[in-house]
Each structure stands twice: as C-alpha cells, then as structure tokens.
Amino acid sequence: MKNLQNTTSVSFFALILACLSPIFSAHAQAPAPDSPAIEAKAQAMVAKLTLAQKVELIGGIDSMYTHAMPAIGLPRFKMSDASVGVRTWGPTTAYAGGVALAATWDTEFARTLGEGLGKDARARNVNFLLGPGVNIARSPIAGRNFEYLSEDPYLNATIVVPFIQGVQSQGVIATAKHYALNDQEFNRHNASSDADERTMREIYLPAFEAAVTKGHVDAVMNSYNQVNGVHATENEFLNLKVLKGEWGFKGVLMSDWDATYDGVAAANNGLDLEMPSPKFMNAKNLLPAVQAGQVKESTIDDKVLRLIRTELRYGFTDRPQFDPADSTYSVADRAIALRGALESITLLKNEGHLLPLDSGKVKTIAIIGPDAWPAVTGGGGSSAATAFEPVSTLTGIANLLGPDVHVLYSRGLPEMVDVFRQTQWNGDVKVEIYPSRDFTGTPETGARRNVSDWKPNQWEPADPTPRSIRYTAAFKAGRAGKYLLLAAASGEDAFKVSADGKQILDQVRAEGQVPKYTSIDLTAGQTVKIEADYAPLAAGTRFGMGIVYEPELVSADAKQFASLADVVVVAIGFNAPTEGEGHDRTFTLPWGQDALVEAVAAANPHTIVTLTGGGGMDTRRWLDKVPALLHTWYPGQEGGTAVAEVLFGKHNPEGKLPVSFDRAWEDSPSAPYYYGVTGGDTTLHTIGENGKPLDYTIAHIRYGDRLMVGYRYWTTTGKHPLFPFGFGLSYTTFSFANLQAPATTASGSAVTVSFDVTNSGSVAGAEVAQVYVSDPSAKAIRPERELKGFEKVRLAPGETRHVTLSLDARAFSYWDEAGHKWTIDPGKFEILVGDSSENTPLRAEVTLN
Ligand code: BGC
C-alpha cells in the first residue's frame, strides 16, 4: 500500500488570522455605560406611560420583536436566534458555534466570533441576539448540547465572556440562555431540574454568573423547565436572589418562547419581558393584579425601565441598527467560519500516523456516508441557519484535491423515507383513526400500501381535537436473517410498535429520536404482525415505518468504491433532524451507520471516520477496526474545507474535547437520574391556550450526580472514559516542564503558576495547556480535580513558551452549603498541568494558610 502521509504542514491559516484583525476594529459601537443622563431620560419616558401602556411593553410581538410605544418615540426592536449564525431573517453565515466554539478553547477566537455575529446582526437590523447558550452538557444525549458549550463551568465561563463582549461591542445586545438548568430536551416544558444549591453554584450557574458579572451581558433568557419545582420564569431564587440580587444584573430578563406559565408569579419573580407575546403578563392578568395589590406598579416600572434604559444605552432610539458598513454576506465572515471549523475539529485516533494524508499520493478517494453530502452545518431547531454556500465533506475534499484525483461518492445507506416508501408489506396496511387520545371509540378505517407520512420536526401548534392512530400490517420475510425495523415521528409525538403482540419500540412524548430502530430475526417465509400505535401532538400525521433486510442495508457501490480507493472517508453521525431542539438524541449512531463503517473498513484498511454531533456517541462496534477518527462537531458552512485541510495536513488539528466521550450512555454519570421520577409519558393531554399540553405530571429530574459531571466523575472514581475531557491529538507532539508555584501563600489571594510548553515534534501546531486544581484536604467532598485555568499556545517546531496563569480565590473555593457562601479550606492543594483531564504530567503543591 502506498505511503499516504504528508510531511509538510500548516499553510495559509496564519494568514487568515492576520487578515481578520483590522477588519474587526472598524465599526464597533459599544453600548454606553449607564449614566445619570440615560437614567433621567428613561425615567422621563416611563413617567409618560399609563399602566396599561407599560404592561404592553413587557410582552413581545410578531414572534421576534419588542413592543413599540410611539407615544414616547420608542420603535419596536428586532431579535434573531444566534447559536451558530444570525439565522432568523434569511440566509446567513453559519459558523462552528456552541460546542464547536468550546472545542477551540480559544478565548480570542470567541471574541472574533462574537464580533462577526454582531456585524451579521447589524447587517440584518437585529438589536437582540438570542445567544449565547451556556447550559452545561450534563448528558451526551441532551438534544441541544451542540448549541451550548461544554461540561465544565470554568471553560464555559471563560469562553462566554469574550464572546459576549464581541457581540455587544458591535452595538447588539447578547442574551445568555437558557437560565437555568435546562440540560435536557426531554419533557422540557414540564421537567423540574432538582439540584441542591452547591451543585447549582459550582456547576450550573458559573457561566451565567460570568456572563453577567464579567461579560456584562445585557439580556438573559429564562428556560422552559422548572428548577426545584418552580418554573424558571417565576423562580425567585434564580431571578431575584441570584441574578438581579447577588450578581447585580441590570439588563432585561426575557422568557424563552412560551416559557411563561403564570403572569402574576412571573411579574413578581423577576421576568421583565414575556416572549414571543404576552399570553400571561398581559393587561387582563396584570391590571387587576396591580389594582388588588398583588403586583406593585413599581415592579412593572422596573421592568419597563430595564428595557428602555438598555435600549437607550445602545443608542437604539438615536441611530438605525442597520449599519451600511457591515455586509450581509462577506468573505471575512467565511474566514471566521473556516477558522472556527479548523480550530474545533478534534482528532481522536490516528493509528500508525495514517494522517495527515499526502494529496500527491492519493489517486482515488472514496467519500461515503449520510453526512458526506449535503453539508451538515448545524443541528436542528431554532438555531438552524441556512448558509449561503455550505461546503460538504465531499466537495471540500474534492476541491482540495483538484481535477487529477478520482473522487467516488456514495451515501452508503438508503434514505429513511425510501425505506418507508419501499417496504413491501404483505397486503395493505390497515389504518384506524380513533376519535380519542387513547385508541377508544369507533375508528375511521382505511387502507394504505405503506406508512410514509414522516416529515422533519416543524413547529406545529398542538391539535385540540382528540385523535390517535393504529396501523396494522403484516411483513413476510423473503430470506432468513436480521431485518431492521425503523419508525419515526415528530419529536413531540409518542408511539409504540409491537411485533406479534410484543412491544419492540417506543417513543415517549418529547423524547423524540429520529428514527427509532430495532433488529428482528426472521426465518425464510415467516410472517410477523406489526402494529403501531401513534399519538400525534399536532394536526396531521408525521409518522413513518418500514423494514429493510440488514445484509442489504449498505449499498453495493459503497463497498465497491471502498475497495477501489487508496483511502476512504466515512462521514457519519447526526444532523438537523436527528439532533436538535425539542427532543433528545440517541447515544447510538443513527440507524445503519455502524454497519456502514464495518462494511467499508472490511473493504479498505485506510478508512477514516468523521463524526458529526454535539458530543460523544457509541463507537464500540467498529472503533478498533478503523485507524483514524475525527470529531467535527457541527462545523458550520466551511466544515468540508476544514475537514479536507485537516486530513491533508494543511492545518494541524488542534481541537480538544470540551466534553468527556463515554463508551456507553449508561456510563455517563447522569444516566441513572436522567428521566427522573415519573419517567416518560405516552398519553395525550389537555391542550392549553398557548398550545402546550397543560396537565403533564411534572417529572422531577433529581440531579443525583451532583458535582460529578463529566470528567469530575471519571477522575474522582478513577475510572476512564473512552476519550477524556481536554483530549485531542495533533500532528506534532508537545511536552510540559518546569512548573513553578508558590509553596505557601495566604488563603484568598491569587496564586500565580507558570510552566513551559514545548513543541517537541516537527510541524507547527497548537496545544491547550490545562491547569487543574485538586483539594485533597477539603472538609467537604470535592471532585478529584477541577479545571481552573488554560491557555492555547501556538508553537513552531522546537519552540518553547513559558505560560503564566493566575488562579484567583474562586479556583480554590467550594460552595459551603451551611454558610451559603464560597469558602476555602486552608491546607494543601495540588496544581496539575497537562493536555487533558487525564494526562497531567506536572504537579505542584501549594499550601494556603
Ligand atoms: C428556543 C430559544 C430561542 C427561541 C426563539 C425557543 O424555542 O428555546 O433558544 O431563542 O425559541 O426562536
């Protein structure tokens, strides 16, 4: 076999970096600080309003606007979603945001990305950017991890501050969301995240705290869920005591879209703006409440003042938000998108140094898999951005290789809808539509040739008309062997599928994974009765079901192309329909993908797998059969170019895992607690006026894993995940030496630590030096180690950098539950330095007196 390695490395990336800085200093219009003049103006405006007008101002309008008040010269202001691009108002630049941003571990890039988004917002007349999302990745299956950052509060807090500063420096309000403990999509309107105060303070709140106290974010969004039995939008502890009290938040606290459940309770507990419209904080509810003394008028005034004061500080009433200096589409944006993808792609396995490949030596390359084309830029839901010109893995690699290399492409697996359409049922499928939610009453009966009404998740209102649908079909196996049964519904629907009366699949409401699948063993000629009970939430039907013979699942051309090629790239993982808002995702890969990798790896030993997704997934079936594995997160519109540059050594990979990668979902420390006390819920419920089911039993999700999230669990138990937090390979090697830290110092003072990082290999590259603190003599139980500092260093071959970091008092503190405050137990601490949570070759002891 040919030698596919490349010995040259990093190319024009540094050039792009150098080009960007002048572009981003030009048109910044940062908000003015609060001042007596602004305060007086805001007060005067509010003084002119009637109570009814004030109440009108604290509810949104037209789904993405604040309310205008012409009487005081206040226009309405525009919002846009933002996690991976300014996406609400047409095509945009789709960046590697969220977890991909965290995988860069690059605070300077976080600022650049924030500035880029700010400019994109100005070019679209947007005043409020509805991001960043800073929730903790508590479980790998949580559907919106890709929009958030990491499993670590320090990393989140450190990345989010420059990001917010970047956005707001452009005269656009950033919104830290979703406050708080919105760490799963399953049952998100009804779940109560039940956590003790220490767990909240140490794990789930610090990123919000930093956003407010250091990033000076001017808006915060309350989440859908409850926290300790009280909805976030009416949670006194979160909103009044902590956010507005302790952290001194002066900006606007808005609700998530339809996350308000009680107007008076929300008004009295800190919510300033109900989005997207005033369903609860409205005149009907609040005028009598003020009259009756249940809500003080000064409470309403405070909300209006916060809105107006913030808008005045940004100059929204004095200047157009559209800035002609900014571009709707720009090459500079594309460079930021490419930079994010290049910096975040994480190399996890590179056996025998297969990578980097030498483009001069590859004559035929096969690019295979559902994620190879079209480009998978981001996950699904309200963040999904339509990119102007997304580059897929297929086109990115082909572009890099040029016309002389043969590129063979195959999806490798059938499309799900084709399985639904092409399944040969034995006779017709009987369809019974019941006039009830529970399959009772006299159904309307019909017949179909197949069950193929699945459509991707859409934001449909709930259907008030009771309805449930039963499909009954027979399937006759032509040949003996395993058959894959797939069933898919909208994430908000529920279903159960049985084979010969035995339940084999189910989806509970708001769990949603697209699709569910299972294998059934059949003998030749065997007929099996398949019955599916489907409970839709919205009007219409969004359900599909089909069966495919497993030995024929992987296409023949994929196997043939793999055997012909010098090297194969298999692009698999998740995409917008399978990972997104409103439902969680599976830990197992989407159907058929394990079999695809196995078939390709069997045909070609030079098989490189690229994984797309917001975090870890199950790779156990094939990981030891492939030499190279790359995690691409959701790489944004330039992902394909970045993958190509990494594979062929034009860019040395530098991403580091911002989340631990578990082997199995059950290994993840939150797994035993994830579904809470009441578990799933498959029945339909009374529909409320806001289109949400009202009578769900609240599921109490006890955060029994407490502080032991991600690597805190792994390092404390001494067990090992598949790939640890902080890990990521490079084409060069780095070494750490010469750790210096004071032997003794006063408790509460900052501790300066320094050490050397050397590029000990032969190509330029970037390393993330990570500093963990361990507190073995603490009175309270503490995680074995916690990240408290890091620095990304770019080094030429042979170069050494002396890194100096200052660890503040918080780096040594824990939350004292009895005293309700941060505390340091004097005594010995350990400082651990290395390149992942599990590899810390440097160690020093510091005694705090
Ligand atoms: C999401 C928010 C988003 C809002 C507006 C909600 O469904 O949870 O993150 O900002 O929609 O699109």
Essential attributes:
six-stranded mixed beta sheet; 849 residues; six-stranded antiparallel beta sheet
Describe the secondary-structure layout.
Layout: H1 13-23, H2 36-47, H3 51-57, E1 79-81, H4 99-104, H5 107-123, E2 128-130, H6 153-169, E3 173-179, E4 191-194, H7 197-204, H8 206-213, E5 219-222, E6 226-227, E7 230-231, H9 236-246, E8 252-255, H10 263-268, H11 283-291, H12 297-313, H13 331-344, E9 346-350, E10 364-368, H14 393-401, E11 406-410, H15 416-422, E12 429-434, E13 444-448, E14 451-452, E15 468-476, E16 481-489, E17 494-499, E18 502-507, E19 516-522, E20 527-535, E21 543-549, H16 556-564, E22 567-573, H17 593-603, E23 607-612, E24 628-633, H18 639-647, E25 699-702, H19 711-717, E26 734-740, E27 744-745, E28 751-759, E29 765-774, E30 786-795, E31 800-807, E32 814-816, E33 821-823, E34 827-834, E35 842-848
Parallel strand pairs: 1-2, 2-3, 3-5, 4-6, 4-25, 5-8, 10-11, 10-22, 22-23, 23-24, 27-35
Antiparallel strand pairs: 6-7, 9-24, 12-13, 12-15, 14-21, 15-20, 16-19, 16-21, 17-18, 17-20, 26-28, 28-31, 29-30, 29-34, 32-33, 34-35
Helix pairs in contact: 1-13, 2-12, 3-12, 5-6, 5-13, 6-8, 13-18, 14-18, 16-17
Beta-D-glucopyranose is lined by residues 81, 130, 177, 256-257, 382, 581.
